[in-house]
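Q: Hand in one record:
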Amino acid sequence: MERAVRAAEQALIEYEIAVDTFRIEVENFSRLHHQKLGPMYTRLDELDARIAEATAARTGDPEDIRRADEARARVMPMPAVEELFHGWMDGDGLFPEAAAMLTDQPVRPPQRVRPSEEARKLYRELARKAHPDLAQDDDERKRREEFITRVNAAYSRGDAPLLRELAEEWAAGPAPAERGPSPSEELYARLEWLAQRKELLTLVARELEEGAIGSMLRIAPDDPDRLLDEIAEQLLAQVAEREAELEALLGEPDTSAGPSGSVES
């Protein structure tokens, strides 16, 4: 029974590492997707609204007017000041990227979606060694949880040097206590908890995979940055098409009907 519990613990830890790795990559991809492609989506919505409004102005058709109103309603309104700066500053003031944008200075390019292979390897090793589920008491679990929080933060930034420092810190720290023999009822309870934890992780993994960002990330798991570039190219082409359509609507008067509304010969 003890061997079965330990095997289940290790299997759960490996599964949780895989889920956390994918979660961080989804979060990174989502952030970069919004940062890189968000302005293009906003531009497309604005162009769609202006095209619908220009069409309604030319035809005066109530259905075209309704479509124009709906298209305009879909355009994101200008955020309030507090919303504009949400996520742009912390206790020390504006983030460097925000300060650069407000002073017309070059903005640091966004980080890549996926951390380096060295960072991924270090993260997995640390997660296996310091995982909170290996704790034997509350104090040890708290120490591990605090340490893993720092590991996750470093990995989300792709900070391999910091991950190396954290690996040295953990190696120099107190060794986990050896697990002693447990009564059968405690082993059964442990197995039940592990099964419940796996079910929860399965739900989290399914939500990540079935979400819009997770689905896109699975299209190009080895090179998600290339996928962003491809989507950007498609959006730029759509923007160009919308701009040409709008220019044609605004530049060409409607001559299909005369002053009385009859078709001109």
